[in-house]
Amino acid sequence: MTQQETSKYLSDKDLAKRYGVARATPWRWVQAGVFPAPVKLSPNCTRWKLADIEAWEAKQEVTV
């Protein structure tokens, strides 16, 4: 994985498209404690680290 890939961030819109869910769903998953927490990049910009999402996905494959 390159440095650029490890520092990539995803928005709630990106996650909704990735999983085929509504934009609010990743936020509900975070509140339920079943999804990685996002990081606040600025006062109006909150994103998820791609590396955190990929690690979560890998864990889901193992536990299913």
What's a concise summary of this model?
It contains four helices and three strands. With 64 residues, the protein is of the alpha+beta class.
Structure write-up:
This protein is an alpha+beta fold. The chain has one domain: Multidrug-efflux Transporter Regulator, Chain: A, Domain 2, CATH 1.10.1660. The chain has four helices and three strands; from the N terminus they run H-E-H-H-E-E-H. A three-stranded antiparallel β-sheet has the order 1-3-2. A hairpin with a 2-residue loop joins strand 2 and strand 3. The longest helix has 14 residues, at 50-63. The radius of gyration is 12 Å and the shape is globular. The N and C termini lie far apart (25 Å). The mean pLDDT is 90.
Mean pLDDT: 90
Portion of residues in helices?
40-55%
Largest sheet: 3 strands, antiparallel
How are strands sequenced across the largest beta sheet?
Answer: 1-3-2
CATH level 3 topology: Multidrug-efflux Transporter Regulator, Chain: A, Domain 2
Protein structure class: alpha+beta
Q: Total strand count, please? A: 3
The CATH architecture can be given as: Orthogonal Bundle
**CA gyration radius, whole angstroms:** 12 Å
Q: How are the elements arranged and paired?
A:
Elements: H1 3-6, E1 9-10, H2 12-19, H3 24-32, E2 39-42, E3 45-49, H4 50-63
Antiparallel strand pairs: 1-3, 2-3
List keywords for this structure.
4 helices; alpha+beta; 3-stranded antiparallel β-sheet; 64 residues; globular; Multidrug-efflux Transporter Regulator, Chain: A, Domain 2
